[in-house]
Automatic annotation (TrEMBL):
Domain of life: Bacteria
Protein name (record): TIGR04086 family membrane protein
Keywords attached to this entry: Membrane, Transmembrane, Transmembrane helix
Transmembrane segments: 20-45, 51-72, 79-101, 113-133
Amino acid sequence: MSHLSTANTENTSKKNALSVVFGVVTALIISFAAFAILAAVMLWGGIGEGLAGPLTIAASVISILAGAFLTARRIGEKGWLWGAVCGLVYYIIVYICALSAMMEFNFSLKTLLMLLLGAVCGMAGGILGVNAGTKKRRR
């Protein structure tokens, strides 16, 4: 492998990693805003606590879709892969934050399902991100 090829691979790897970080940070910001709005509506509005779980999951799904979309859009290829990475990293960060708040480790089927949900939503967002705006030539 030539020096030029190695440098190009390193630049691509760095660009991909920065794109994932950008997507995850974007997803976390969207989640934080959505959770703040949800908390305010629950506090002052008419939404009961029974809807908190489903609305939290919905906010996370939307956040992951957006973050994965942006990640894959920046990378431009393999949207399913980079979207899944974005979704998994998002949920790992959220899980670590939840662990630090609860001070106990509890890896359960629910945790595994949330990681799977993050990966699947990330894949969907990544596929949309790569394919958005591409114009296919008619033959």
